[in-house]
Design brief:
Oligomer: single chain
Largest sheet: 6 strands, parallel
Number of helices: 9
Distance between the termini: 12 Å
Number of domains: 1
CATH topology: Undecaprenyl pyrophosphate synthetase
Strand order of the largest sheet: 3-4-2-1-5-6
CATH superfamily: Decaprenyl diphosphate synthase-like
Length: about 260
């Protein structure tokens, strides 16, 4: 049967089966936790942990590219992180600016497309300009998509998408009955990328901390005690190996999934 003659239900089943059969996640999200504790354990200022964490980011990007991951999303700075001490926030902002400058050339050389997600309006004009420049420089790259969540919150993401739809209703562009999951998802961050398959959190805590709530609705969750600066290729591979052992059911039963796979 050709693709053109397949029904929408058959196409949906085929897409679902392809998701179920994945051994390598196409979209991985990581909550990079433990920088401060890593530094404190070594008797160093917390900022040294953040600087060490940059090396772990570099390793994660390299590992994702080597494994064939299509999108990698890193939780760099949440909307709640503004509550941290002013000095630490200031140092984080300066580190973010420095890292963008230093890493951009290598990312571009390796075909990585950089995508900053979150409400960047609170950042300095200098940092906003740097972000826009970095995204523009890598916009045409066709390799790994690196999403960096900065001043990001999952609830914020959903609210800003809902507000966009409300404005469309008020303008008479759509009717309220036309607001669907698909339409709302078109206005979320990373709307043109696959939903998250695997979410990893380092640092030993078991929560998702308001990170990509919508996009990770069916993600497999892997928690590790490894602190972020110690996250390496082996840790990443271990998480992907765990992902490969999971049976992803998307609301179906195990027997239904087995039937779908057998029919392919």
């Amino acid at each position: 049967m050709s693709i053109g003659s397949q029904s929408s239900a058959e196409l949906a089943n085929h897409a679902l089966t392809e998701l179920v059969k994945q051994s390598i996640p196409q979209h991985v999200a990581i909550i990079m936790d433990g920088n401060g504790r890593w530094a404190q354990a070594q008797g160093k200022p917390r900022v040294m942990g953040h600087k060490a964490g940059v090396k772990a980011v570099r390793r994660a990007v390299s590992s994702a590219r080597e494994m064939g991951v299509g999108s990698l999303t890193l939780f760099a700075f949440s909307s709640e992180n503004w509550r941290r001490p002013d000095k630490e926030v200031s140092l984080l902002m300066e580190l973010f600016f420095t890292v963008l400058q230093r890493e951009l050339k290598l990312l571009h050389k390796n075909g990585v497309r950089l995508n900053i997600i979150g409400d960047i309006s609170r950042f300095s004009a200098r940092l906003q300009k740097q972000i826009a420049s970095a995204m523009e420089k890598t916009a045409d790259n066709d390799g790994l998509i690196l999403n960096v969540a900065a001043n990001y919150g999952g609830r914020w993401d959903i609210i800003q998408a809902a507000q966009t739809l409300v404005k469309q209703v008020e303008a008479g562009e759509i009717d309220s009955s036309q607001i669907t999951e698909e339409r709302l998802s078109q206005h979320l961050s990373m709307q043109n990328q696959p939903e998250v398959d695997l979410m990893i959190r380092t640092g030993g805590d078991y929560r998702i901390s308001n990170f990509i709530l919508w996009q990770a609705a069916y993600a497999e969750l892997v928690f590790t005690d490894v602190l972020w600066p110690d996250f390496d290729e082996s840790t990443f591979k271990d998480a992907v190996d765990v992902f490969a052992t999971r049976q992803r059911r998307f609301g179906l039963t195990g027997s239904q999934i087995e039937t779908l796979q057998a029919e392919e």
